[in-house]
Write a structure and sequence with these properties.
- This protein is about 60% helix and about 5% strand.
- It is built from ten helices and three strands, in the order ααααααααβααββ.
- Strand 2 and strand 3 form a beta hairpin.
Length: about 270
Amino acid sequence: MDQTLDAILQKQLDTIQRIELFLDIYKCKEFVAADLNKLKEDSGEAAEKLSRTREYLETDRKDVCSQFIKIMQKMRRNELLMLHLWEVGPHSEAANAKPAQSDTPKSMPLKELQNDNPSKMHLTDYSKSPFATRSKSKDIHFYDFDAEITEEEFETIPKYLRGRMQLSELIQFLEKDVIKCFEEKYTLMYKHRKAVSNQHDLTAWKDYNSMQAKFPDRKFITQDDLLHKSGKALDKKSYAKLQMLRYLHILQEVRSEGTVYFLWIYSR
């Protein structure tokens, strides 16, 4: 009971002190009002500058991480290339032949890996490699179609577009449907003409190279390519995923002469 009375008494004393403080401030209001308003403005400006600094640092961190990843990827590709050259060097005819008169070393072709899952390569390297001259296709992946969707990027997609979809669903659609479609198309399209013996593949090869003239410097697939890849018509959920990939600047949709094209525009 005594503790309750002490608490009530202390509360009243605190209230009295706050009232006295208010009265003291009120008496000198005309002298401190300008300073208080200036302090409020300065606080708002400081908060805004702090927010801008935080955004800049976060953007800069992402850029640095992206550059670091690219450098590591280049180093890894160079390591693989050196291993290939070292492996084929002692057994190649060039190694047993007499040295050329010129001091400029001749470039050596990439050796075909002996497993079913060759390392990734660029399309330009693929077009010059043994893979492009052989009729038997292999499951090849390309750095040209690498893409990453972070949790932060996924959260920027408007809620009305995301709905209840999870990031993992979008990534699976991107990797298993979209990127796979790009890889299969350009694996065939970049083959040498003599390496395409199947009549169905030859028709597709001609169509692909013919359509490429519409976007000579771009990589793209069509809505029909996705349809043939999945074996069924695109449903509402698939269209929503394509819209999200467009929002994230991975794909760009272009319509021309009744055909829907999806251009690869992703870059880091």
